[in-house]
Design a protein that fits this description.
By secondary structure, this protein is α/β, with parallel strands linked by helices. The protein has a domain of 150 residues: Rossmann fold. 41% of the residues lie in helices and 24% in strands. The chain contains 8 helices and 7 strands; from the N terminus they run αααβαβαβαβαβαββ. Strands 3-2-1-4-5-7-6 form a 7-stranded mixed sheet, sandwiched between helices. It starts with a helix and ends with a strand.
């Protein structure tokens, strides 16, 4: 087992997330494919596509499992999925989740379809469309228990995008840095703050504030 994979496994264990051999094999394959494809279509920063950086993305994605309890067979919509974060690492750990990966850029969506296929992830679909367009489709309005948004901008923008997709009572998980108080002051009245989850890991150079919002109307 590689050094970075071992450190990733150790960091997950500190979060009470146990990785099986099957999980580790999938993460190794995911990491390998991501590094290869990143040379062509810039899925993540080319200045930070080392194995350590890739496993930092994996760890970042899995923080949700420690921050909240995700019910069995949750309908999850991952907004602006990009290279698959946080949706795909979550799906690797939670086979029961029904996952939609929403990505507007065709090349990235093609990569997501490839990864879903080679990792043999069931009940996982990739939609190559803008969120604003999909939100007009009644098949997706108020259908989701959980929506995730990583690096999509400020909270006011994210809540506007996520609102139509979430059921009332559903949760929106936003990935933010430490400074988020000003954004929370401008929070939409359609949402309330459920929880803030702050995590730091010096080994991977990760500092993350998960903002968990509940749709109340």
């Amino acid at each position: 087992m590689g050094t970075h994979l071992k450190k990733f496994q150790k960091a997950c264990k500190s979060l009470e997330i146990e990785l099986t051999e099957e999980h580790l094999d999938k993460f190794k394959l995911y990491s390998k494919e991501l590094a290869k494809w990143n040379e062509k279509i810039n899925l993540i920063s080319r200045k930070s596509d080392t194995p350590k950086d890739i496993y930092r993305h994996f760890l970042d994605s899995l923080l949700i499992l420690n921050a909240i309890k995700i019910p069995f067979q949750t309908n999850l919509l991952d907004l602006g999925s990009g290279a698959g974060f946080p949706g795909l690492p979550l799906k690797i750990l939670r086979k029961d989740i029904f996952l939609i990966l929403l990505e507007s850029k065709r090349k990235k969506a093609f990569f997501l379809e490839h990864i879903v296929d080679i990792l043999n992830l069931k009940n996982t679909n990739v939609i190559n469309q803008r969120a604003e367009e999909l939100s007009l489709n009644s098949d997706y309005i108020e259908k989701y228990d959980l929506t995730t948004a990583r690096l999509l901008g400020k909270l006011d923008k994210i809540t506007k995008i996520a609102h139509s997709f979430l059921k009332v009572g559903g949760l929106l998980v936003c990935y933010k840095g430490k400074s988020v108080e000003e954004e929370l002051k401008k929070l939409s009245k359609d949402f309330e703050l459920e929880k803030k989850f702050l995590y730091e890991n010096s080994v991977f150079g990760l500092q993350r504030n998960l903002i968990i919002l509940k749709k109340i109307k």
